[in-house]
Amino acid sequence: MRRQGKMFVSLLIYTLTLVFPAGYASLPLVINTWPFKDATVAAWSALQSGGSVLDAVEAGCARCEMDQCDGSVGYGGSPDERGETTLDAMIMNGDTMEVGAVADLRRIKNAIGVARAVMEHTDHTLLVGQSATMFAESMGFIAEDLTTNKSLNIFSEWLKGNCQPNYWKNVNPDSSKTCGPYRPKATQTWNKRAQHANTHSHDTIGMIAIDNGGHLAAGTSTNGLTHKIPGRVGDSPIAGSGAYADSLAGAAAATGDGDVMMRFLPSYLAVELMRAGADPSAACKSAISRIKRHYSEFFGAIICANTTGHYGAACNKVPGLTQFHYMVTNSESSTPMLKSVDCF
Ligand code: ASP
Questions:
Q1: How far, in Å, from the CA of 80 to the mean position of ligand 1?
Q2: Domains and CATH numbers, the chain
Q3: Where are the beta strands (DSSP E) in 66-184?
Q4: pLDDT band at residue 291 under the 50/70/90 scheme
Q5: Active site residues
Q6: What is the mean pLDDT of residues 122-144?
Q7: Nearest residue to 251 (alpha-carbon basis) of 117, 63, 97
Q8: How confident is the model over 267-282, as pLDDT tens digits?
């Protein structure tokens, strides 16, 4: 009898795996990069309380900004070469294809909120730097110092270590040994790109929300790359690179070495592949493969979801990233599920 019971349970589990394989469809859906669980919860509760998919993405990313997820989102992380934390964020409405984004945003904590204000209160797509701060203030956001003891400490350790690592090349004095200021070298040599990025120097929350009506939105928020050259903007606020959403096809959001990834528009590519019929895992994999062809050692991952709520993810296998974790909540599981994918 006991044996029959065990067989029944095994059969049930087997049947459930066939009916509900990884990434099975269920709407509404919230999915985000990395194990930023509280952000998933915030986005899901925004949807559950009647908010739109844009409200969900904004609430999820804003939660990460306040929690300083991983130190890589929001204030007090990734100080640049002058010790300042600057923020990049974007939000995209998959129904209207409107985008709002901010890059190199200074002294404002709620970057995703400012990105949404760019989308809703201007005809522009992307505002940058000090002017983005002035825009934010005019929209009622409070300007404040984004520096913390932690970011000051990271900065002073970097200065003590002769400004290593940094992102300069072909300059004098030798940037691999000393701090700047640097001047261009008369003769330039081509060197294989240094493997700068690792799991500790950066991350991004990238989030996708889909409601029962098939409305899609996607967004990102990050403080970019530690020790970046001031003025550096990553992939996260660039539509098609950091994230992309089209309610007729699907959505994707990326994280990783933005300086490389933004050259390939991986989120756009993944959405176009889903439009052509690829399932989300295959679309994510193709977007990563496209980059790998040129930069086999890049650090990066992407999440994808189609309009029916199927989802998937992919990542490039490098030391420090062999498995990528992401969060999912849908109507089958109102508590966030931690998912992982093996990098290839
Ligand atoms: N993509 C971000 C950037 O390069 C950082 C990350 O996601 O790891 O700014």
A1: 13
A2: 25-147+196-342 (3.60.20.30)
A3: 86-93, 99-106, 126-128, 171-172, 183-184
A4: very high
A5: 204
A6: 98
A7: 97
A8: 999 999 999 999 999 9
